[in-house]
Design the sequence.
């Protein structure tokens, strides 16, 4: 029975309840020096039970500390960055990945195509928009402001540097293209309607993903809690865009963000679980220093996991895709967080898994 998270909502189509076998990677990448670690039988069985429309995965794939979880042997970050995606995508639970590097420098269509060639046909990418169009500020290499960004939410720049390259390179393997609005300066937060008007112009001007990427969705993630409003939902709904559920210490807890998802229903789920709340709004470095080498869960968050699992079940149960990426800084080891979330998703509604009970 479909979860009642959103109330009595009819399914738009029957939901698939099991994943098919992962496709083999192309022969061109079989010889690369990265091999998938042995996957335990229980994880393979779990992957078969995860709804086909649930695309779970991690933020990037370049971490040497995942040896034994994803990698068969110890390898450098440089090798994993260049050659690890194919092995990562062979893991039966890893059906998406968040390409965060695009935030810092826009990738070309050919670079996206190289990624697409390394993954199975059913794999879907989550890609962050470049900061050149999604950040209201121009920042230096340390993240400090160098002034206002005149290209912030510019539709022409967004299409040229983000949407078109992703469509040309990733094609049908696009899951979610995410405009993450970095923390905004006070000037913007004091005039939210002006921000929403600019966002609406951007979203309505973008080309549709559907002709090339039928499963794809444009999503907006905010990093200012004051923007989680019904007015934002109205802008997104009018443009057929999704709200990216940002699980981050700068943002309200997951339960407080669910009303915005309900206001957008029916809509695909896009979620980026970024940072455990214990570290605070600026706690990335603290989390990294505590959790590195990211080889085991150190701060389990069973409440967030259980709620997110209910949202995934409700979404996929209505025949809509769910795209969820998890950072190492959420609980300490993203691959293990994915496995725990998958286990929670596969539990009957109302049942708690051992990992959810803590």
Sequence:
């Amino acid at each position: 029975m479909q979860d009642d998270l959103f109330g009595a909502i009819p399914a738009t189509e029957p939901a698939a309840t099991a994943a098919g076998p992962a496709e083999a990677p192309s022969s061109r990448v079989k010889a690369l020096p990265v091999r998938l670690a042995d996957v335990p039988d229980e994880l393979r069985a779990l992957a078969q039970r995860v709804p086909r429309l649930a695309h779970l995965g991690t933020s990037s794939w370049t971490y040497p500390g995942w040896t034994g979880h994803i990698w068969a042997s110890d390898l450098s970050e440089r090798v994993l960055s260049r050659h690890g995606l194919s092995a990562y995508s062979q893991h039966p639970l890893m059906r998406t990945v968040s390409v965060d590097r695009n935030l810092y420098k826009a990738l070309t269509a050919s670079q996206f195509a190289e990624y697409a060639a390394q993954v199975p046909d059913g794999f879907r990418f989550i890609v962050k928009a470049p900061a050149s169009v999604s950040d209201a500020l121009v920042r230096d290499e340390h993240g400090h402001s160098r002034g206002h960004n005149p290209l912030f939410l510019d539709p022409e720049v967004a299409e040229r540097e983000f949407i078109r390259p992703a469509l040309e390179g990733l094609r049908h393997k696009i899951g979610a293209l995410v405009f993450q609005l970095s923390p905004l300066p006070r000037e913007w937060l004091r005039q939210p309607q002006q921000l929403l008007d600019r966002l609406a112009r951007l979203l309505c001007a973008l080309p549709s993903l559907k002709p090339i990427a039928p499963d794809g969705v444009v999503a907006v993630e905010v990093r200012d809690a004051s923007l989680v409003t019904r007015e934002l939902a109205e802008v997104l709904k009018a443009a057929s865009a999704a709200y990216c559920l940002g699980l981050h210490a700068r943002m309200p807890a997951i339960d407080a963000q669910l009303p915005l998802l309900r206001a957008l229903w029916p809509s695909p789920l896009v979620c980026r679980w970024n940072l455990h709340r214990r570290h605070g709004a600026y706690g990335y470095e603290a989390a990294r220093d505590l959790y590195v080498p990211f080889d085991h869960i150190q701060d389990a968050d069973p409440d967030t996991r259980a709620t997110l699992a209910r949202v995934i079940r409700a979404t996929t149960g209505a025949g809509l895709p769910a795209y969820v990426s998890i950072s190492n800084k959420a609980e300490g080891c993203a691959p293990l967080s994915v496995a725990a979330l998958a286990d929670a998703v596969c539990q009957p509604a109302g049942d708690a898994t051992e990992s959810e009970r803590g």
Q: What stands out?
A: The mean pLDDT is 89. The CA atoms of residues 93 and 339 lie 7 Å apart.
